[in-house]
């Protein structure tokens, strides 16, 4: 692996007023608070030793089909370059979907108690049920699926929704066809219009970034290797064709365009039948949530085609309108849908790791075999159960006090979202999302997402996410995440107002 970083932090001069180097008629100079403490020195990782020896094992051809997961590494690289250019700038990160608020104490104290109990003879427990603790499953059923016909035995507790999505791929095997929303939760491919030859920062691979973050480097943890949940896992399983550079899509995947023109819900009359339909609502990145009527159409579409919907509801608790929180609110959904969800964004469990997947017993394969029985087999084969400490936390989350505490944290992020929405609206932008998800999807018609990303970073020192990183359908948009400290969100909004006034 090539040498990755050549950082000479001391040689870079600071700048208080950021020079206006990008031409746009909406842009003004932004004055920015400076801080000398916002950069940590980055120690370049040593490159991996190159050896001439090769094993006799051929590479999995499906792995070779994968496109580089450029989005987050590229954002991190541009941010690193920016920090070199403006070492005194106070960079604000509203690009990532990682939580920033502390976990409520009612939840951490339950985890601490469980942890201490593990040091006692009476309190010790080893392997638990692969499907999860019975009490946690029961609490999930009553908290999120009461009156929806979902029982404790339909719920599999896990180490997170992303891991469950991969286990679902194993369940389906390599012979299924899939459909995904475009844009969708981190999309695999980003075509760089202008490969960035940034001074002082050479090409950095995801692997390099991970090594750097493990060494405590400035890059830090930024979900750099995250994503590609639906698409990449199906590529790895061999369900797709090769990547087609001209259209920036994999062969054999049905991409369902979701844009303001169709109210972020695909025109199902133009969607070909697939075996599996991945559907995320409230959506990451667009922040939109499907209505009851739209979901009814989706369920009917799946039923007509004999498809299975994998419904990702990881942001359902962020919804503020009365659209469905679960696909199982739609009549007939138990015969066509699986739902996956997570404590990550509800309770700040992105690091703790706890999620769940619902596979109703009514869901059957074409030969009549229950999908849940096969999923159970997959779970028992590939997973030894979620951490008992995390599950103690999950149970606390679902207690009356825990639910109250989670709602309070969510309300905090909702207020952040509102600040961001109001800011962009006041500047005359068309703004989507925000009402039902902690993501704001801002339209910059006719402009490249990466140009807008660069403009915002250059002029305001705020990191956002370019919409095209989530798929071709995201071109012309940027995603602004509401996960951040209040002072940062307010400061970012002030800078946005100065830039686009
Ligand atoms: C839509 C969606 N689903 C799933 C996940 C991952 O959840 P988990 O942390 O439980 O793996 C994310 C994380 O950002 C997400 O945005």
Automatic annotation (TrEMBL):
GO terms for molecular function: pyridoxal phosphate binding; transaminase activity. The keyword Ribonucleoprotein does not apply. GO terms for biological process: systemic acquired resistance, salicylic acid mediated signaling pathway. It holds the Pfam family Aminotran_1_2. Its cofactor is pyridoxal 5'-phosphate. The keyword Transferase applies. Keywords: Aminotransferase, Pyridoxal phosphate, Transferase. Residues 253-491 form the Aminotransferase class I/classII large domain. Belongs to the class-I pyridoxal-phosphate-dependent aminotransferase family. LL-diaminopimelate aminotransferase subfamily. This is Aminotransferase class I/classII large domain-containing protein. It comes from Coptis chinensis.
